[in-house]
Automatic annotation (TrEMBL):
Start and end residues of each Helicase C-terminal domain: 450-610
PANTHER family: ATP-DEPENDENT DNA HELICASE HOMOLOG RECG, CHLOROPLASTIC
The keyword Ribosomal protein is assigned to this record: no
Broad EC category: isomerase
Annotated EC: 5.6.2.4
Protein name from the UniProt record: ATP-dependent DNA helicase RecG
Keyword field: ATP-binding, DNA damage, DNA recombination, DNA repair, DNA-binding, Helicase, Hydrolase, Isomerase, Nucleotide-binding
Family: Belongs to the helicase family. RecG subfamily.
Protein purpose: Plays a critical role in recombination and DNA repair. Helps process Holliday junction intermediates to mature products by catalyzing branch migration. Has replication fork regression activity, unwinds stalled or blocked replication forks to make a HJ that can be resolved. Has a DNA unwinding activity characteristic of a DNA helicase with 3'-5' polarity.
Residue intervals of the Helicase ATP-binding domain: 270-431
Length: 681
């Protein structure tokens, strides 16, 4: 029996040249060879040509009916054609640059041919040919990514020898407990299933095992990192008063959704822990994150701590202030607002009260992180729309407390798959349900020439006292052109309405004060139509706005379209969104269709992920996602979630750290250096 750590050249048929080509592929030992997985399996099941659509891949068994004819097309280029009989079909088979077939193919001979079926011309453009009838075991053949002159058949011969050299013995790397639980194939069976599957099911089960194993390793590393970080970052255990929190929830004028209840529980549990909370709260626009934030802040207050809520703009901070006051005033919790426009004297008094502990909760913008803002006892910090804040700003605010717990809120739906990977070091809570009774935003996709139809619709809304947004085209890399466009649209509309409705203009070149002013006018209903570039505030709440038109909507990604659309549909009125777009690509059309089909931000985010792939979703650099051998984050997200739960449980399980069954997993962690803190990525 060969030892699998031996060099590959101990296998038969591997000479100097082949060895160096294998080396180039990173294959030095027999073991390396075994762990080289195919990137796909070719389906060689026999198909009936009558049932096969044009351009699809087929494999047929056929009898050669003619002498092959060869056409030379130039240097090393040739085309060979032969007529074959497959069942009742007399068809032609064509191969390019396979000159050697000329002497191999003789009339009467049976061959198995695979290729692309040209239904119109009744031709198979061959990709592979085997001489003789099809063999049973070749329904699914792995396809490896190979280098040099090694071709698939040769490579499979080496692989066969490599697997045979195991002699049916290979140490299991997954705990038997998990193999049992999920009915996974053993390591030997799975290796056979990857390299020499008996059938589709065999290949599928093998893949299932390795995907799970790979994702489990990945999640164990993340969970181990999280555990060591938690142990090293001591925080405060906020012992809130459960009864008081319950009483407060009872005073809220609506019933929390199940999703809100769930995330409140997740956050509360975390508050009580002695480590520092580092949690991301995701919830689609309108899902009700503010009340969740309020409950969490109040919990901290009942434990004797102060809380802070930081928003990216003054208007948002004011809106939070309004909501929180309406809930907190009746129960005597002191809330204050600090922003850039707080008057000097008022500010001095406010800061004094903050320092004395007379203010329980401070809401504000960046103004919260100025050096003279001193809390008495800051225990909990929430930042809204976290992506708007720099890491540094968050750190400064955090440092104003004694390592306070931190909750980040965002309305950008990130598919669960990516959230639990990309935010590996953060815990994630998701509100995936809207309060009952919300009306869907009716979304229509119109051609740009149908602009007039949408203006008519807008006018009918305005006549009923509603307000509208017009989002102007985004011109890549030219803010100047963006502005020009917005100004043009603004002037057009102003001319059309001729004073009947007031039109406002908003774009990135305005001074922050001007922006605030125009937003305020819109919020207060003094402006009926707001023409804006995409700078229109995330999270702004104008419940009376019921109409939005988005120019050149196909230039936006799904996530951004969804964000923009979320500016309407926030009140009791039925709302409308019109996408004006003539997309040139299939993908663009699909995006427009998706928008008209669903209002669900998470569904759209999943779709976005599917259309763009995980790398693009965040931008390649940020994603920090490892390269997987088999797993695919988009399609294997359920397995990823299972692996995450298993890893989170195992890492705190005595058994995991002691039992022989888990030794392989422990060794994997030890090698990663995470346990000793050598690698903190
Ligand atoms: P977002 O998650 O976008 O910040 P908000 O917190 O602003 O959403 O909530 C949107 C609106 O829904 C607010 O008017 C809020 O009071 C209301 N709301 C929140 N939760 C519920 C609920 N469970 N039932 C009914 N209305 C709710
Ligand atoms: Mg909000």
């Amino acid at each position: 029996m060969t030892n699998i750590t031996e060099p590959v050249n101990t296998l038969k048929g591997i000479g100097k040249e082949t060895e160096s080509q294998l080396n180039e592929m990173g294959i030095y030992t027999i073991e390396d060879l075994i762990w080289t997985f195919p990137y796909r399996h070719e389906d060689f099941r026999l198909k009936d040509l009558a049932q096969t659509p044009h351009n699809e891949k087929v494999t047929i068994e056929a009898r050669v009916e003619s002498v092959p004819s060869v056409l030379y097309l130039g240097k090393n280029k040739s085309r060979i054609q032969v007529t074959v009989l497959a069942g009742r079909h007399l068809v032609k088979v064509v191969f390019f640059n396979q000159n050697y077939l000329r002497t191999k193919l003789t009339p009467g001979q049976v061959v198995t041919v695979s290729g692309k079926w040209d239904r119109g011309r009744q031709v198979i453009n061959g990709t592979s040919i085997k001489f003789g009838p099809k063999m049973d075991h070749t329904d699914f053949e792995p396809v490896y990514s190979l280098k040099g002159s090694i071709h698939q058949t040769k490579f499979r011969k080496y692989m066969r020898q490599a697997l045979d050299s195991l002699n049916g013995v290979m140490e299991e790397t997954l705990p038997l407990q998990l193999i049992d639980q999920y009915q996974l194939p053993t390591i030997l069976d799975a290796l056979e299933g990857v390299h020499f599957p008996k059938d589709a099911e065999h290949a599928k089960q093998a893949r299932r095992r390795f995907v799970y194993e790979e994702l489990l390793h990945f999640q164990l590393r993340i969970q181990a990192l999280r555990k060591t970080t938690k142990e090293n970052e001591k925080g405060i255990a906020i012992q809130y008063d459960l009864q008081k929190v319950r009483d407060f929830i009872a005073t809220i004028p609506f019933e929390l959704t199940n999703a809100q209840k769930r995330v409140v529980n997740e956050i509360s549990k975390d508050l009580k822990q002695p480590h520092r909370m580092n949690r991301l709260l995701q919830g689609d626009v309108g899902s009700g994150k503010t009340i969740v934030a309020a409950i969490a802040l109040y919990s901290a207050v009942t434990a004797g701590y102060q809380g802070a809520l930081m928003a990216p703009t003054e208007i948002l901070a004011e809106q939070h202030m309004e909501s929180l006051k309406s809930w907190f005033d009746p129960i005597g919790v002191k809330v204050a607002l600090l922003s850039g426009s707080t008057k000097t004297k008022e500010r001095r008094i406010l800061l004094e009260k903050l320092h004395n502990g007379e203010i329980d909760i401070l809401i504000g913008t960046h103004a919260l992180i100025q050096p003279d803002v001193i809390f008495k006892n800051l225990g909990f910090v929430i930042t809204d729309e976290q992506h708007r804040f720099g890491v540094e700003q968050r750190r400064i605010l955090r440092d104003k407390g004694m390592n306070p717990d931190v909750l980040f809120m965002t309305a950008t739906p990130i598919p669960r798959t990516l959230a639990i990977t990309a935010f590996g070091e953060m815990d994630v809570s998701i509100i995936d349900e809207l309060p009952a009774g919300r009306k869907q935003i009716e979304t229509h996709w119109l051609k740009k020439e149908q602009l007039n139809a949408s203006i008519t619709k807008m006018e009918s809304e305005l006549r009923q006292g509603r307000q509208a947004y017009i989002i102007c085209p985004l011109i890549e890399e030219s803010e100047k052109l963006d502005v020009q466009n917005a100004v043009e649209v603004y002037e057009q509309l102003a001319t059309i309405f001729n004073g009947r409705y007031k039109v406002g203009l908003m774009h990135g070149r305005l001074h922050p004060d001007e922006k605030d002013e125009i937003m305020r006018a819109f919020t207060e209903g003094k402006v009926d139509v707001l023409v804006s570039t995409t700078v229109v505030e995330v999270g702004v709440n104008v419940p009376n706005a019921s109409f939005m038109a988005i120019y050149d909507a196909d230039r936006f990604g799904l996530a951004q379209l969804h964000q923009l659309r979320g500016r309407v549909g926030r009140g009791v009125h039925q709302s409308y969104c019109v996408l004006l777009a003539d997309p040139k690509t299939e993908e663009g059309k699909e995006r427009m269709m998706s928008m008209t089909q669903t209002n669900d931000g998470f569904k759209l985010a999943e779709k976005d992920l599917e259309l763009r792939g995980p790398g693009d979703f965040f931008g390649k650099k940020q994603s920090g996602l490892p390269d997987f051998k088999m797993a695919d984050l988009v399609h294997d997200y359920r397995t990823l979630e299972t692996a995450r739960q298993d890893a989170a449980r195992l890492i705190y399980d005595e058994q995991f750290w002691q039992a022989e069954d888990y030794r392989h997993l422990r060794e994997m962690l030890e090698e990663s250096g995470i346990l000793t803190g050598e690698r903190m990525d």
